Amino acid sequence: MSVATHGGRAKCLQRLVRMEMPVPRTVALSFDAVHRVASGVMPDMTSLLVHFGATALLCVRPSSEEPDWGGPGAVLNIGMNDTHYADLSDQIGRAAAASVYTRFVQAYAIHVARLDPDAFEHVIEDGPEGLAQVLHAYEEETEETFPQDPAVQLAEVLRSMARAWEGTTARLLRQAKGAPADAGLGLVVQEMALGMGHGESGSGVIQLVDSRTGQPRIIGRYLRQSQGREALDRREEALFLARDPRGPSLEELVPEAFADLKRMTGQMRAKLREEMQAEFTIENGVLHILDGVRVARSGQAAVRIAVQLAEDGIIPRDEALLRVEPRVLNEMLHRQVDPGAKRDVLATGIAASPGAAAGKIVFTAADAQAHAARGEACVLVRRETSPEDIRGMHAAVAVLTERGGMTSHAAVIGRGMGLPCVVGASDFRFHARRQMLVAPDGRELRAGDVITVDGTNGQVLAGEAPMIEAAEDDALNTLMGWADEVRDIGVRANADTPGDAQTARNFKAQGIGLCRTEHMFFDADRLTVMREMIFADTSPDRAAVLERLLPMQRADFIELFRIMQGQPVCIRLFDPPLHEFLPSDRAGHRELAEALDLPLSDVTRRVEALGEYNPMLGMRGVRLGITVPEIYDMQARAIFEATVEASREGEPVVPEIMIPLVSARREVELVKTRVDAVAAAVRNETGRDFTYRLGVMVETPRAALRAGEIAPHTAFLSFGTNDLTQMTYGLSRDDAGRFMSTYVQQGVFPEDPFHTLDQDGVGELLTIAATRGRDARPDLVLSICGEHGGSPESIAFCRAAGFDYVSCSPFRVPVARLAAAQLAV
Ligand code: PEP
Ligand code: MG
């Protein structure tokens, strides 16, 4: 018997029997047998019933390959009929016997005869009157008497369960959960342990760990005079398992059975190599084990259970690593909506940054700051965000935007800050001027209304949903330590500020793989300086701004080097897309006019002159660096002066400098010549020697194709897959949100390519560039620093392509470390 022929439940029961647990007699029907039943070929009922005593009551339960593929509900008490009722009344009393018979008639009517549940579910008066009512209702509805032959009853139950599995709805449901089209169903026929009648009788479930935390704790329910999983359905009436000051417990009622139950559940854990929940029945004081199922668990519990199983020597460490789905770490590192909570979903957008938070809606960054000042939680709602909103993002507990995709401004910044964020929520109608949002069902939301943003699944909920807190703990640290021992691809973080860098270190990133230097100027007092730099159109103006920028940048870099303590820090030269950095409204123009001491009209004119039709493909990155070389000169100087300064205190720092948006070899040559010259000048002025490594970001298809001629001029290539995806598809990062869900729903794209690396297209460019680059320069270091760097699938791709490391937002570093380890075990 195997899981693949009889299903998980049958296999588990077979093992429990071999462990000599008190499992009632059981017969398992294979997938093939059940499939035959569905097509009308019944097994020989007489020989099936021979396994059980003539007077035994039976139950039938489903046994599929994976428990979460679903399956028909269990049917209990098969074999109840008028004769049995009379006998059972003598044994356990009329009321209990009537209750057993009634339950069976109800289940049979609803699940086998498929009668209207309303006619059966609510009839109940207890005892013989209730029984008479359901039997009468059955006869009314079917115009037949209730079947009395146990063989007929069992055959009908088997047939209805087999057919239910083959029905279209059930098939679609399980296929959505990953089941193959031909997934089979096994059925388990088991003798009933009654759980009702004289002496201590009842049923329940027990597990030895807490499903939420994974900590050892006896958890479960026991309900006297009950069957199946009633103890779970009627929680309030159930008793505690272990001694509890709040009320009576199973332990006090039947101490020996309770001790056996604990011991047996522990044995299941050891032998089945998994934390199990036991389903049990007590019949007149005697314990029966009906089933064992894998304990349901949160991400936090999954980690602790896997680590504890390995520490107890039950599974090897490698297996513990494989048992934790990397993405569940996201759950642990952020607050989440309580999975058990009811969700009032207003609309769904793109899940851009995980975690959840609730607060009052605000429509401007200034309002967000005002709320934060009053200590009130707020959610910043914007069409899209720009650097002007950064202050508001810092002040808000979550961000919601109408536009944008996985790599839009709000998404990238939100992830960097660990701020829950939903973008591209275009199902809402945004009325920016009226400061109102309208949900698809017509509900209107205004400033001050409370919503919950769930950045883990993209949902926006009405009101404040109940949350569970982030829970980083010792078990996670242990697991991550094991991951780092086996992993063979590096994991760095994208970090722009000292705060990011500290987070990166806390999550044990092996350095910074991308420091977006223009992001260092998002703070209110600095944004204007950055704008002045972009804005300056005469050499003296520019020189004056750069002189102010130099000390700021130098101080930034010194701090980053200090925090990273000798780990590599890869600094990207400025890449400010103009639409993100130029002021877009009158207030912004006025602020800039004041800063520059110019008439407003001059500023407005110049902003218009600088405007681009397609700023993502305009004067960005190295194009700005070549056109206005003093800018990169200033940055190179700041990096080298910081290098000298930081190296005085400790280990020599070897900075990495990266050129963005390259598309031609000559761009690299030009920048390299100037950076080398600045390095020479700083060496001269300070009298200190240092080295540095110059690298190129591959973000345009042309750079990927021409990697062979670029490689000799560069120590490393880092793939900026955000822009590379944008340019390979010709798909705007900022506008893709509008139609992405339609595209994915209609199967044009299997998934959002800004979220999941397009291995076929963008991936081919990566492979071409890696091969051509390494052919030209075998020691070329290869890495990825686009948002894909943190996703398990992309990490697998990069590792297979021989990359040295991946770099991702600091909060995704643990996920990346675990995903990388799973590839190596
Ligand atoms: C990229 O394009 O992948 C990248 C890392 O740079 P940015 O997101 O800053 O454009
Ligand atoms: Mg880029």
From TrEMBL:
Its EC number is 2.7.9.1. Keywords: Kinase, Magnesium, Metal-binding, Transferase. Residues 473-824 form the PEP-utilising enzyme C-terminal domain. InterPro entries: ATP_grasp_subdomain_1, PEP-util_enz_mobile_dom, PEP_util_C, Phosphohistidine_dom_sf, Pyruvate_phosphate_dikinase, Pyrv/PenolPyrv_kinase-like_dom, Pyrv_kinase-like_dom_sf. It comes from the Bacteria. Catalyzes the reversible phosphorylation of pyruvate and phosphate. This is Pyruvate, phosphate dikinase. It holds the Pfam family PEP-utilizers. Its cofactor is Mg(2+). Belongs to the PEP-utilizing enzyme family. Residues 377-458 form the PEP-utilising enzyme mobile domain. Signal peptide: none annotated.
